[in-house]
Amino acid sequence: MAGATTAKSNPATRSSPSDADLARDIAAGDEEALKILMRRHNQTLYRTARSILRDEADAEDVVQEAYLLAYRAMPGFRGDAMLSTWLIRIVVNLALRRRQRQVRERALRVDMTDVPEAPEASDEEVREMTPNHAPTPESAASTAELRRLLEAHIDRLPELYREVFVLRGIEELDVEETAAVLGLPEATVRTRFFRARHVLREGLAKDIDFALNDAFSFAGERCDRIVAGVLGRLRRQSRRAAPDSRDLPGTRPTGEKS
Description:
The chain is mainly alpha-helical.
């Protein structure tokens, strides 16, 4: 596989390689193609993970894990679905598993402390999960404040609505793509998206579309951190593993859970 990457096939020599080209080159071991793929899809995958986990660090971890799984499975990617859809489905599956594990761990902690009644998450707890960074130099103070307000309201949406809203309203996936990613009927996607918008409009008392593109902004530093993290983990694994360790048995290229 060492000689698989050539100047002719290297995506860095092309202005805008397609996802199919990147998948082929990544399967051949092209690290530059992997970098391009990550920078192309980082924001969508991060927003998807965060919509489920409501935690920035957990979302970043899940995105990195998803890229590692996708990298190992790339030689078997058949292209039955769009590469972007496949990656989102991997992120959704990983994020849901992590959330389920966290719920079990919280329940265990409650049982061990013998708390008579487990209260629902308060507004203060929700606010603690919403970062409160100072406005960046690149954004006006008013826009930054509105963005934080919007993010807080999205975080307070019920889980069923929040996941659909982030994919449809922020990432602008169509109904069919959202339904495929979440494993829902298209009618359910439409209904949940409509209700999510209604809840947000009531909470904000203004048009929510103004700052959608800035919600959960994906700064260059976070993008660089994810790229560096994935590449670092891959290099550490390659030093420890045999040459054929990338072909893991049982990997499902479609990203679906069995």
